[in-house]
Every structure is written in C-alpha cells, then in structure tokens.
Write a structure and sequence with these properties.
The chain is built from five helices and ten strands, in the order H-H-E-E-E-H-E-E-E-E-E-H-E-E-H. It is α+β, with helices and mostly antiparallel strands and 205 residues long.
C-alpha cells in the first residue's frame, strides 16, 4: 500500500470520526446519555465569558483535540490543517463565527497553559499516536504529514498542563541523526560510568 493511499485512508477516518462526533452529540441530546470527556469540555465552554456582538452567528467552545465543543455539547469540526499550524491544544478556548455567507471562521481566544513531552510516533488501531511514558496520545494526521514524521521518530508534543488529555499537539519532530547521536552519547556516558566504577587490580595479586 502506497503512502498516498494510507494518508487518504487516514483523512477519511478523521472525517468520519468528526461526523460521528456530531451524530453522537445529537443522540445524547435525545437519550440524555453523556460522555465524560465531552461533558468536561462542554462545562468549560459554558463558563467562558460572552464576547461582543459580531456579524453572523458566533459560537464559543473548547477544542477537544479534533473538534470544538460548545456549552450544549454540540461539536463543530475544526479544519485539521488550521489546528495543526496553529498548534491548538486540547482545552483551548475558541470562537467560531459563521458568517452570513456561510463561512466558518475559527479563532483561538483562551489558550490553556501548556507543557511539553517527548515520545515516539506509533500506529495503534489505525491511528497515529505519540507514546510518552507508557501513555499514547492521539495526534492529527495533518500534523504527522506536515512534519513528514515516520513511525519510530522522536516527537515533541504540547499537552494541557496538569490535565488528563487524550490528544497531543505536535510541536516538532527530532531528526533521526540527532536522536541517534543523543542515544549514543547517553550510552557512552553510561559506559564511562561503568568503567570508572571498576576496581583496579591489586598490586599484591
């Protein structure tokens, strides 16, 4: 299977998941069954201060790693390219303006505090993820393709500080030669420590 075909499949999966999120939101409004993760972002959206009036419809919400969730648990698909280039982080407050012409204009208005982590790019359940200390964070396909990352690469991601996030935001991909050099240096330092710890033979032996 070619890389272009794989990328196309991943994009179709993300598009389907976005549509599924909207459908689930509508289903919850009928059944009353809630999603704890969605509810968390919805509660944060409801606590955001209202903004001034603008032309068109304005909706405020919270970025959940892939979509914007408003206070009514309605999801709005955020363009993956915009989210990747803007380095949106799960929990960021956002504003969506739906113009009279029907255009969707997103803007980050309340960024959360961020922390960085370094992990390894993996594929799990057909999704790209970053494995950090045993936990896998989902990342947008657009970010992986933008940085031309490959499975096994060391990747720096942004996470919401002090929050149990499901999504990470790609900050940078560590070039393989730098990662290998760092690993070799670390191995060399450990070897040197082991050598320094060896006992010298006794002159009496």
């Amino acid at each position: 299977m070619s890389e272009d075909t794989l990328i196309q499949i991943q994009e179709l999966i993300e598009s389907a998941e976005s549509s599924l999120g909207t459908a689930q939101s509508l289903l919850r409004s009928v059944t009353g069954v809630t999603d704890t993760s969605l509810e968390k972002h919805s509660e944060k959206a409801s606590s955001m201060a209202p903004i001034g009036s603008e032309s068109g419809k304005v909706v405020e919400g919270v970025f959940d790693g892939q979509n914007m969730v408003d206070s009514n648990e309605q999801t709005y698909p955020v363009p993956a390219n915009y989210a990747s280039k803007s380095k949106l982080v799960e929990g960021d407050g956002m504003k969506l303006t739906i113009t009279d012409e029907g255009k969707f204009i997103y803007k980050q208005i309340a960024p959360v505090k961020r922390e960085t982590a370094v992990g390894t790019l993996i594929q799990e359940d057909g999704q790209y993820k970053i494995l950090v200390d045993g936990k896998a964070y989902r990342v947008l396909l657009a970010s992986v393709t933008f940085y031309r990352a490959e499975v096994g690469d060391q990747v720096t991601i942004l996470l919401p500080e002090g929050d149990d996030a499901k999504w990470g935001t790609v900050e940078a991909v560590i070039p393989k030669h730098l990662a290998e050099a760092a690993a070799q240096e670390s191995f060399g330092n450990e070897a040197a420590k082991d050598a320094d710890g060896e006992l010298s033979p006794s002159v009496d032996d």
